[in-house]
Every structure is written in C-alpha cells, then in structure tokens.
C-alpha cells in the first residue's frame, strides 16, 4: 500500500476518526485506524465495536492495499507537520512497519494485521430519511446536556429519538433526561421517517455525530433499524449500535397545569445565576429564586463563605402571579439558559413541583427542571 | 450581633416527636387496625418490632423488641409490613409544616425533629403557642398526632416531649431545667450509653444530681474530653445548636439471619443480596462513595468491621460486590457462626450528601 495525501485532508479525516478509536486499549487493534487505498480513494476506518466511523477522501494512490496503525500517534504526527505538507504513507505488507514521510521528516510505525481489524456490520437498515444538518444539530444541542451519566440507568445514557404526535401533526422528537431535568425538542417529521422505531442514541455516538455536524450545512442521511443507526454526513459514515433499553414514559413528568409564568431576559438571568452561585462550594450549588410581581431575587447561601443575593427588576423580569420561592442547581439553570436565545419563560406550580422552561422564540424546545429543597 | 443589641437571650427550642409514628400511619390508612394492638415489622422468624401502637404498648410491646417476644407479651398483636415510602411522604409533609415557622430545622429521624424558633416565636406570642400551632397543623394535614417539648436547649426540649405523650406538650423553663436534670438517671442523658453508665455507677454517680456534684477533675480523669459536656448537661446546660440539613455521612443496610451462618457459600449469597440492595439505595439517592464497610456480628454478639477504600467512587454494582467479597474473605475461616451481616457505603463524595436536596422527576420504580 502506498499513497500521498496533503496534510490538510489527512488531518481533517483523522480528527473525525481518532476519538472513536479505543483509548483504553483493552483490545490493542481497536486503538488503530485502518487505512486502505483503492485507486485514488483513501478510506479511513476506526471502531470501538459500538461505533464505527468511515471517511473517504481523495489521495494519490500508487499501490492499492490496506494497513492498520495507531490512530492517536498518527494524528499527533500529522498535526505537527507544517501546513501544506504532502504526506506519503508506504507499507510493504505483512509485519513491515508503516513508513510515513513528509519533506525531510520520516518515521515508521508498528502495524497490526488488517485481517484482525473488526468490521462493524450495520446489517439491513429498513428505515431511511434525510434531515438538514442544522436541524439535526438543533435537536442534539438542546437535549444532550440532559443525558444521564449514571451507568446503572443505561437507558438514560442517550438521546431518545422517536415520532410523536403534536396535536394531529406527527413530529420527530428528541428527548434526554437524567432524572433531575429533561429536555424535549421536536422538528417537522422528515419524509420517510413516519414509521421509524423509537431509538436511544448513545452519548458517545451523539458526541461523535455532533463533531461531524460542525462543518456541513447540507443534508444528513440517516439509516435506521431496531439495533443500529447510521449517519452519512458528507464523506463520513458513522454507524452505531443503539441502547437496548426502554426509555421511561417521560410525558408523565411534563407538567400540564403549571400556571405561574415568569419571563426573564436570558443574559441577565444567566449572569446573575453565575454570580450568585459563585459563593457556593458545593458541587450542586443551589440557587434560590424568590419570585414576586416584576421582581426576581436570586440568592445562594454557603455555610462557610456567607451569602450572595442579586435582584432583577422589571427591566428584565415580568411576573404577575403570587409570590413563590424555589431552588435549583446553578448548573442545571445555566445548562438550560445556554440553549435559550433572548428570553426564557419559566412556568412554576410550587416550590416542590417540576418547573417548565421554554425559549419564548423557540417553542419547539421544552425543558423540565426539578427543584431542590432549599 | 451589632453593637447596641442586647446580649444573647435564652433560646427557644421545640422538639417535635410524632406519636407511635409508623403504627399511627398504618392505623390511619387501614380503619380495621384502629383500636387494635399493631406492630410494624415482620412477625415471623427473627423479625423485630419497628414501631408499636399505643394499644400494643399497653401490653409491654416496644420498638426494637424481637417479634417473638412481642407476641408473647401480646398474642393478639397484628403485624403489618412497613411502608417506608408512605412514612417518608408524611415526614415531608411534617417538614413543610415546620418550615412555615422556622428555617432552623434539624431532622433526627423521619418522625422527630428539633426546631430553633428563637428568631420567630415572637410573631406568634410564645414558643408554646408555636408548638401548639405546629401540632394542630400536623393533625389537620396528616390526621396524625405529635407531641412537643419546649425548652431553652435541645436536650431538655427532647426530654419535655416525652412528658405529655401522646398528643401533648410540655415546657421546661430555665427555672425548672436544673431540677429536671438533677432528677434524671444518668442513662437518660444524651450521649451516656450502657458503658459510660456502668463506669459512672462504679464512681457512685447514678443521677443528674450525683453527676452535677462530682468534682470536675474526677470526671476529667475518667471521661477525658467528655467530662465538660457531662458537667454542663447535669446542670441543664446544652449549647449544641440546631443545625439544619445534616449532611448524610453514610448509607448502609444489614440483615440478621433466620439461623446463624457458618458456610462460605451461604455467607457469600447473603452478602451479594445486601450489595444489590445497597446499590439500589445509593442509586435511588444518587449517592456515590468510595469506602465500603463490612460488619459481621457473631453468634456471641461480638461485632467486627472491615473497611476498604478505593481512590475513586465505587462506580458499578460489580465493583461493590467484588470489594465486599474481598472483605468477607478476611473473616474466613470462621471461628464461630455469624448472626448478622451488614454493608455500609461511606466516604461519600461530591454530588452525594448535598444532592439529597435535589428532587427527582421519576419515581425510582419507573426510572
């Protein structure tokens, strides 16, 4: 196998690929990237057996073939080469090392046999639809912060994507929750998606997908079965197993009868939360909101450091309901306000009940936040 | 305190204690149980009484009494299994009542709490009146009765709460305090258990008055640092503040066997069940910890603990089980049978104790 590729092309592809490769090295070959060249088409593959990413880029091939080499080392080397370099990769076959040359730089990397590289088979994907990258990005960004990291609740370790009726209209919906907060975002149902099964996309897959969505504004092709999902973003194909579990009946915990509406300027609120919470040493950093007509008082108490308080008045707050005090974790508030454009709407019931949060400019997203006892 | 303020005045502490709490909740929810001798707990095997109704107490049934003994005292005793979810829910209702009168609430258990109303009692006239309002609100909102003790410190307030039980309240004033303390038997004081009592008795100290009159250097020689606390408490002085929201330090579960165990495989099975239960408890409370403690009580009631700490929080149920088994192996081969086994998670960290205040969206059963 022998080819030349320019550094820029190679580094972009390796950046997509290398984080999928297994770093814990339980199975050595999973730390490797497979490079294969056929004519002028270079294919790079990495997998951790849960996710596989394949990217195809143009290269100048001179001898067809394939090899596997350590992904992170290759990435680091190529990254450090000067801009505009042309990189030559040359592998004589068998156990011979992979020679990498760029200008006057040369290295040789140990390889592992291509035959040992596991292939992740997507199997048949009976469902398929196309969704604009910015729309998919919106679904991911506004839900992923709420994904649980609690391994025992594996069925919450991802984003639940499914078709749901909003009134009569079927929508494509993404939901994530960690049991303390929940994010639900929906978008018009793409053509071909009406029969898809509800699936839970694992957190790592979400993170890899999100990286790919950074660049393109084009369409993402999604293929789906009960156990696998595949995204084609430009020249990259991401295939992943799905979480085999049942997502809880989340609709039950979305409050229907909350009736105390507070509107607050997002920036003023987020800044006040951060300033007030700064006094707290605890990880949960509780912030108390005291809501009165057109006045919101945020406060935090630390047994060791003292207390902090900030008032937001009618220049940034509107409220005309009965007075209310309610506490939340600062981080949970900020995670939600990060997703909000200009103005947030909180809808409360009481200090011990789930609170609804919306972006007044983006009714397609809805957040539920459980308070703290403060 | 600002310059010009008057010196600190006497505190106003209220101790609230629900009357026969678990049993009363059961009688409230099942009319068939009303007026009958009820014990919450398991009636068979080595079960113990977790709580007894007043009807049962008349026969001498007490909490923590082995069920067999209880049935001997009261053959008509009805056992009902505990419903801790319900007790916790009622406990939250009660705490919501407390919170209307003060922010300084120290829960001591699901059914008991100390309240410092020094800053708020004037709005209601007196602390006695606050206690009356709280008890009325508890009855109104839960259908259950509570007793209250009112005094100038925690120890005397708790003592007072027992004085007019059930459904009553009692005040120990600063004038009465020293007399009350003097009349107590030493084991009735906070912090004096059977061992300390025996040592005090050996010194001729049987009552609060004896303790008060004992020379402080004698107490110091025998009880070290605790001497000053004993001397104060014998005079009715207790400066312990009411501390709101005590952070949980450990989480554990244990079981007493139907019959004593000596076989490795049996012990391992029990331990694995305990670990599974402890894992559920920690998951439900979103607690993580890095230290596991295994407790063994032998048939002769001697207990021994073994502890193992990891550098990071125990992340999976398998890790917890493996760690517990390492600890269990240290006890084998056994030189005598085991009566009880328990596992406790400590070294709780970060998002642990404080996160107890974070409420959850889903019940544990569904999510």
TrEMBL record, chain A:
Residues 131-249 form the DNA polymerase III beta sliding clamp central domain. One of its GO terms (cellular component) is DNA polymerase III complex. InterPro entries: DNA_clamp_sf (IPR046938), DNA_polIII_beta (IPR001001), DNA_polIII_beta_C (IPR022635), DNA_polIII_beta_cen (IPR022637), DNA_polIII_beta_N (IPR022634). Keywords: Cytoplasm, DNA replication, DNA-binding, DNA-directed DNA polymerase, Nucleotidyltransferase, Transferase. Confers DNA tethering and processivity to DNA polymerases and other proteins. Acts as a clamp, forming a ring around DNA (a reaction catalyzed by the clamp-loading complex) which diffuses in an ATP-independent manner freely and bidirectionally along dsDNA. Initially characterized for its ability to contact the catalytic subunit of DNA polymerase III (Pol III), a complex, multichain enzyme responsible for most of the replicative synthesis in bacteria; Pol III exhibits 3'-5' exonuclease proofreading activity. Forms a ring-shaped head-to-tail homodimer around DNA. It comes from Swaminathania salitolerans. This is Beta sliding clamp. GO terms for molecular function: 3'-5' exonuclease activity; DNA binding; DNA-directed DNA polymerase activity. It holds the Pfam family DNA_pol3_beta_2. One of its GO terms (biological process) is DNA strand elongation involved in DNA replication. PANTHER family: BETA SLIDING CLAMP, DNA POLYMERASE III SUBUNIT BETA. Residues 252-373 form the DNA polymerase III beta sliding clamp C-terminal domain. Its main location: cytoplasm. Belongs to the beta sliding clamp family. It is found in: Cytoplasm. It comes from the Bacteria. Residues 1-120 form the DNA polymerase III beta sliding clamp N-terminal domain.
From TrEMBL, chain B:
HAMAP family: DNApol_IV (MF_01113). Poorly processive, error-prone DNA polymerase involved in untargeted mutagenesis. Copies undamaged DNA at stalled replication forks, which arise in vivo from mismatched or misaligned primer ends. These misaligned primers can be extended by PolIV. Exhibits no 3'-5' exonuclease (proofreading) activity. May be involved in translesional synthesis, in conjunction with the beta clamp from PolIII. Keywords: Cytoplasm, DNA damage, DNA repair, DNA replication, DNA-binding, DNA-directed DNA polymerase, Magnesium, Metal-binding, Mutator protein, Nucleotidyltransferase, Transferase. The keyword Transferase applies. Its main location: cytoplasm. GO terms for cellular component: cytosol. GO terms for molecular function: damaged DNA binding; DNA-directed DNA polymerase activity; magnesium ion binding. It is found in: Cytoplasm. It catalyses: DNA(n) + a 2'-deoxyribonucleoside 5'-triphosphate = DNA(n+1) + diphosphate. Pfam families: IMS, IMS_C. Belongs to the DNA polymerase type-Y family. Its EC number is 2.7.7.7. This is DNA polymerase IV. It comes from the Bacteria. It comes from Swaminathania salitolerans. Binds 2 magnesium ions per subunit. Residues 13-193 form the UmuC domain. Mg(2+) binds at residues 17, 111. The record marks 22 as: Substrate discrimination. SUPFAM superfamilies: DNA/RNA polymerases, Lesion bypass DNA polymerase (Y-family), little finger domain. Its cofactor is Mg(2+). It is an enzyme of class 2 (transferase). GO terms for biological process: DNA repair; DNA-templated DNA replication; error-prone translesion synthesis; SOS response.
